[in-house]
Amino acid sequence: MGKVIGIDLGTTYSCAAVVEDGRPIVIPNKGGYRTTPSVFAVTDEGRRLVGHLAKRQAITNPQNTIYAIKRLIGRRHDSPEVKRAKETCSYEIVNGPHDDVRIVCAGKQYSPQELSAFVLMEMKRAAEEYLEEKVSETVVTVPAYFNDNQRQATKDAGKIADLEVPRIINEPTASALAYGLNRKKKDEKIAVYDLGGGTFDISILELGAGVFEVLATSGDTYLGGEDFDARIIDYLVQEFYREHRVDLKTDRLALQRLKEASEKAKCDLSSLKETTINLPFISSDSHGPKHLIVPFARKKLEMLTSDLVDRTIEVVKQTLEECELATADIDEVILVGGQTRMPLVAEAVGNFFGKLPNKGINPDEAVAIGAAIQAASLFQDKAEMLLLDVTPLSLGIATYGGYYTPIIERNTTIPVRKSHIFTTATDNQTAIKIRVLQGENQKAEENTLLGEFILHGLRKAKAGVPEIEVSFDINADGIISVSAKDLETGKEQAITVTASSGLTEEEIRKMTEEAKIMEVVLKE
Amino acid sequence: MDGREAILKGKPRILGTLQQAHLKLDPKEGFLLSRMDGRMSMEEILTLSGMDREEALTISMRLWEKGVIVIEGVDEESLRKGGEAPDTGAKGLSREEKQKILAVYDKLERVSYYELLGVTPLASRKEIRNAYFALSREFHPDRFFRRDIGDFRWRLDSIFKKLTLAYNVLSTSESREEYDQTVMPEIKAAQERAAEPEQGKDEKPSDTDAGSSPVKEAAEVQKGRIPKEILERVEKAKQFFDRGIKDLFEKKYASASGNFRLALTYDPYNEKYKKHYEEAHEFVVRNEMERLLHLAESAENILHYEEAKNFLAKALELSPDHGQAHHRMARVILTMGGDPREAREHALKALEAFPKDIEFRMTLAQVYKVAALYKNALREYDMILKIDPKNDEAKAQIKEIKALL
User: Would you say residue B51 lies in a domain?
Assistant: First the structure.
């Protein structure tokens, strides 16, 4: 068996790491970069590009450059996230055959799984070159808020890239693993504040005796560094409109340049107090070419984005309340994700917790390192550390009146088994339908449907008399089985909930074949 | 005796509360399993089952090897004597790991959360957490990732789920208090009832206590809060204990010891059972030793040395460090002209038990002399003179050996 690596498949950047001789090492890609943009593109000549090459030509080829695909993976086409992406993305998003989405790139439709697979393949190839051996398994990280469909879609992306994914772990948990490596002996509670390119996550973990326990994990799948960029873009567009009466938002080429410039200015202002955004020839009208030149100060950036930072702090507050902890109970705060390099973020987090956040780990690499540590510990006989994983979202069933009754609460350590007794809602009901849902909303329809089945053959009785025991069972691999049992007759129905990534087995197989052909092309 | 003979003597019972649906059993295995209640001996089950005896035995051995049943009253080792079992599945686990998993699995449903986590009811939250973490490191299914552990997969799952439940209940003060107030008294009361058999029924007729209301109990059992098994096992333990007491009055000490041991098997934390078992066991061993030594002496008296040796060997099996028995053994071997090396072993063991015993050392010296190890013999006689300077026998022997040299 080859080495098992860890991959942080990020919204904007991805990173791979491996544990060698007990030490985690970040695997550099061909260009020597330690992180790889999660970007895929097809050029005018039909060449496929992944990573830095794809990102570098994004300005000139905006419609066929695909980025931030993580926001679409495992999502339904009618979800608000997808609608939002349709408005903001420079590429075309269409409805897929399974209520999912497809991305149009150079006239061909791709599923988000395939596009993620292209990035994974790039990471896999870099790892194989670096390790000089075949890599066939990887632990992949996802945001804490990912539901089972999104996790399954991520696994399927691995499959398409010819990578088995034995475990999916949460990004903040992975960061804590990276952090805990040197501190196995200490008992402490850690808050992991992860503000990446596309998502925000906060996790509270407790570690001791080499065991990690997730006390709580929460976040916002639609809040990240790109929202900070967007604020800058909006500001620049406004400034430009005020001066020139030209709306840059309608010009894709200009938008891409604005995005690049905004990201760069934001990064610059992490160390500088002031910079100038300078985009010559961004537009033209009957009077000739127009240039965008805007002086930009850190103060201005902070004004534009402080509400975003406040939003993250609000989530942190709720999460602490949820696990009945005060800020004083937290021994360490660690910052993960590129956006935490912004001084305002570090300051706000520090103020909230009343202690300086730890910057011991490179925020871009911590997640991948953690994934590599988890991968290594799984295959190691007497591993030093053990990760006690939890359910990211509550699981339950739909009940009478369109309500949702959770049976396994979020943040429950798995493996776990829990059951609850339900009864019939109408007289002489002989069958009940069990709809397995995942989510936190009281209304059934607001949660994700994972599967459904019917228990027949109930004895005719008054409503409320029959006792049906519904049990949820989650094993260590996160596979959920649900059973319903009529306690009177002993009749039982059960299903294994296979989260749907939106692709059928056959489609995955076909995509795997196609991806393989593509790999051959890339290797030339 | 091989495992198949050994199993006949035992009483098979199903391990823990087995989720039989998880097992891939054929109808014959299922049938046999349904006969095993921990009361009937294997011999009886074979007779009653109406199945082919050899086949039923083979199936029973297989059920035992798979860890589906335990055999009460027979120790592991004699069951193992049939040779290493051709284990079906679970090749990725060592025998120790299997035993460890089965041992914990077996007690899942019958011990309190405290006992399961190996902490006292006074343990702090931190102690409870550390215990949970330590056990997680041993029993979390990820510890056995990608290993071929067959049927043990769901056992580990069950163990870990239960550990987590115990930890969750005990680590928040509200649920712990509730557990302490509702479930613990039940367990304790059941254990106490079993521990006070002599006082019997007239003790306290208090049925006002809500805990013992059958309605509530049934409800609790339904919820899975009070393991019914605990009550059943405690009840069984009490039955065995009562039988043991009866045996004592009838002076059937061996039977009493056996019954106490069974009581302890069903209720392993009962100090009273433990004390009774230890005392009865010691008494039985002492009696049997006396009997065997006496038999050996009689055999010796009529010059039946081989027979004497056999009795002594049995005595030593029972009590391997018995100085007297070792000494007698050495003497018998000397007298019958047996292997001096064997005699020396026993003489040394006897001295290990009683290093200052002159008679024992004389025997050792004599053994050396017979083996022509004169220097060793001289050393021993000198030692005897140090302990007892007036020992004429030793002086005479020294003179004799010096002449030989």
Answer: yes
